[in-house]
Amino acid sequence: xxxxxxxxxxxxxxxxxxxxxxxxxxxxxxxxxxxxxxxxxxxxxxxxxxxxxxxxxxxxxxxxxxxxxxxxxxxxxxxxxxxxxxxxxxxxxxxxxxxxxxxxxxxxxxxxxxxxxxxxxxxxxxxxxxxxxxxxxxxxxxxxxxxxxxxxxxxxxxxxxxxxxxxxxxxxxxxxxxxxxxxxxxxxxxxxxxxxxxxxxxxxxxxxxxxxxxxxxxxxxxxxxxxxxxxxxxxxxxxxxxxxxxxxxxxxxxxxxxxxxxxxxxxxxxxxxxxxxxxxxxxxxxxxx
Length: 289
Fold this sequence. Notes:
The chain is α+β, with helices and mostly antiparallel strands. Helices cover 58% and strands 13% of the residues.
């Protein structure tokens, strides 16, 4: 029979408290005049020890939670890598073993390239998240055409989504901001992919990019998906965090996307807001000064 370290620790805590009460009782019986001093010292000791135990308990729970998140992250990454690799392998084996016409070959090659793009996005997310956390990414900024960047990413992701158009856009032309093109591409990609991921098949996702009258640039991604409960909205930008409903757990993901989004936007002095969509779903609004 094995005992967890935390169980042994609490057994020791119980033993210390029991011994404290026992010796305090004996001391009071031997010297009744020092009863007040013993009780006062005992109260201070118990208060400090209880506070320490409470803090240690919270730290242990937090570490356990982080460990579980990291375990889920590794499982998710494994699945995210295995799925497109298996798909690419199947397409290539089919091309190699069967006599296919040119059109079929091109179709299988195109699908393989899409899976390679998925792998590339996953690897880029992991690398960027690591660099941001290690403070080794410098965010080189330049004047960039955000309109062209969003349109290019939408065009690439559209073919992943559905046989018919489901990413609907309203984009002002030539909206420029000062920022890191690579990091901003990651922000746009993660927000759109997130909206698509948590929506029903072929459900519309609305993308808006406009410059407001006050000069601020607003980039908005709205979906009709499962939504995010109010109590979980502040947590969605935490590393490895994923919304805790059963539907969400069944959805692919590593929990890095929104973490990267928040970190990149903070380095661009941009704000992001999470709102409820109507009649259902979620809206992410990003404001650039």
